[in-house]
Amino acid sequence: MIQTDTLQRVLGMDPVDLHVFRRDEIQVFNKGIFPRRVNGELGLFIDCPIRKKEVQLDPEEYIRQLYARRLLKVYKYPKDRLKFEYPIRSDQETKRADIVVLGSDPQETPYIIVEIKKSWLLAGKAQLRSYCNATGASIGVWTNGQQMFCYRHKSPNYFEEITDIPTAEQTLADVLNAPFTLKNLILKDKLVMERRSLKDILLELEDEVLANAGVNVFEEVLKLIFTKLYDEFKSQKDQNEINRHLLPLGAGHIASDESGVAEIQDDNFRRMQFRNTGQTDTELQATLQRLFDDARNQWPGIFPEISTFKLSDRHMSICVSSLQNTKLLNADLQGIEDAFEHLLGQRRGGLSFTPRPVVDMCVKMLNPKRGESMIDPAAGTGRFPIHTVFKMTGTSFIHAKIPTESEKYISKVFGIDFSETAVRVARVLNLIAENEETNILPLNVLDYERWDDIAENYRGWSIAYGEGFQRLKALRAAEDGNRYFNFDILMGHPPFGGPVKEHRILHQYKLGSREKREHPEIRVKREALFIERSLDLLKPGGRMAMLLPQSFFNTTAEKFVRDFIVTEARILGVVGLHANTFRPDASLKTSVLFLQKWNDDPEIGPLCPRVDDYPTFLATSEQSGKDNAGNYIYRTRHNGSTIVEHDLHNHEGKLSDGIAEAFIEWAKREGLSFWS
């Protein structure tokens, strides 16, 4: 059998990256490849079953030969119905389709058209559709070996994605109407099997459908994802049955290896409803609206009591077809968060969100323990709270359901954000992480004097967020006010911006009051008030991590804030982030400030004795995990999975030790209370 390194050297590709094909398919195919020198250069050849001759392989031909063998062996199409380089008259010129499966009656009519592209060239879907329009072919398939799209050609320029193509013995209706359960969803999940991201799927929908749909794209996508989550939630009994087969007795999370799923009997499993099964577009719209209404009743507070889809029946059908083969419940949050933050960034003017490696670095360094309380005062979509929950419950990096015995620790983890839109997204992300009891609240953390007024006078707010607000109030340092709290940990990324001008808010803070400041002529920036407010939220000995612009650390204008900090807390460390960290949304140089509030009394909190002279941890990130354009840089691991390459933490041993591990070693030497 030809060696993988030979394939890589000659073809410039690694078959392990062709996620569309099973390992056994590739192994059997590679056994038939043989080398031969052509004009002094080494070439790779294989016997083509369609053209009945030896053909030289290049990356595109490699994928075509693989897929042709699947058509023959898996889908059982006879050789005489398969044609390569089939001529198609389109736009007054003749082009050639890579593979055409002819119909059986009449035989010479194209039935399925397959367009193959090099594994690194994500293009050609428009060409495929033009071929289908020109020939009237019912089905189109596009693949680059890494991803695959199967389309049902309903009418000119109207294509719907379908789960699979029919075998030679099936009709298209058989495929559309086949029972589809949670087991099938796991086996067909695009996010896992094709390594696609939800953001990529949404970008395609925006380009092809949503941009011209005349609707609020953010709201409609949020409704679709919310509805799909509920459809998967209704199949939890089936998920438990799958877990029972895959996991040792007593294990508390879903296996990441789904290799045993195919053997599980699913005759009694519930059929998924978030699917286009060939019903009319109007019938599908009605089914989705009923499912959405049930989801809204199950999880109140995310959408108004009277809320309906605004998408047209036709656009709804296309959107459902594109999303139906993605498993969202308990999915990898990296891709889900990126998708939502893309939508939020469009809605809110291109905001920048804290990348996951930075969040996980902060969480690892501050070491939240079970039973401790945590808050993010500028939570956005809730990354810091969600990842704190993962750390406390032992589910970091494994996309696992939170064990039942660990759910009680979630009730002390909070997030606050002034944007109710961001809070709604954060609550949906918590549902994806299978955390239904979330404490993400829409409040202005700086304007704490109005919190009780909002809770008491806005009935809708109270219904949606009242229970979480009561849990928040239970952590107040005094019963009669919302200024001082007793949180163990605070992590956040406050909005960078201009000065706060509202005198009613400014007078609540030492750093905001002109009378209390040494230099009243200096205008107070928003992040300065966030620092003071954050220290008020922490108990004595509490610890915090806050992202701040680099200018905060070295300009004379911010000296009065730095002087205030050293009177209130010990500066544990400063980590300078790489300039690419927030690209493409922003290129502002940012650092993370780590503090622990002074405390000499072990009865009221962790010890952090006040001293005048002490060491501080300093580090600078040289690998952000992104390139200059803001695209993530991935490392492919030995098992074919990918991981973002950075130096912030070691990702549970999957990367080299980074800044977080260096801090932990230093913190233990220093005897810091939360690492002693």
Structure in words:
The chain has 676 residues and is of the alpha/beta class. It has three domains: 4-177, tt1808, chain A (Alpha-Beta Complex), CATH 3.90.1570.30; 182-323, no CATH class; 333-675, 3-Layer(aba) Sandwich (Rossmann fold), CATH 3.40.50. It has an eight-stranded mixed sheet with strand order 12-11-10-13-14-16-15-17, sandwiched between helices. A six-stranded mixed sheet has the order 4-5-6-7-8-9, with helices on both faces. β4 and β5 (93-102) form a beta hairpin. The longest helix has 18 residues, at 281-298. The protein is globular and about 85 Å long. The model is unreliable at 249-257 (pLDDT under 50).
Keywords:
676 residues, alpha/beta, tt1808, chain A, Rossmann fold, 8-stranded mixed β-sheet, 36% helix, globular
- Measured between the Cα atoms of the first and last residue, the distance is 55 Å
**Assigned CATH architecture of the largest domain:** 3-Layer(aba) Sandwich
* Structure annotation, total helices: 23
Name the CATH superfamily classification of the largest domain.
Answer: Vaccinia Virus protein VP39
Helix content: 25-40%
How can the largest sheet be summarized? 8 strands, mixed
At the first level of CATH, what is the class of the largest domain? Alpha Beta
Residue ranges: pLDDT <50 for 5 or more in a row? 249-257
Instruction: Provide the structure class.
Output: alpha/beta
Shape: globular
Give the beta-strand count.
19
Lateral strand order in the biggest sheet? 12-11-10-13-14-16-15-17
Number of domains: 3
The rounded Rg comes to: 28 Å
Mean pLDDT: 88
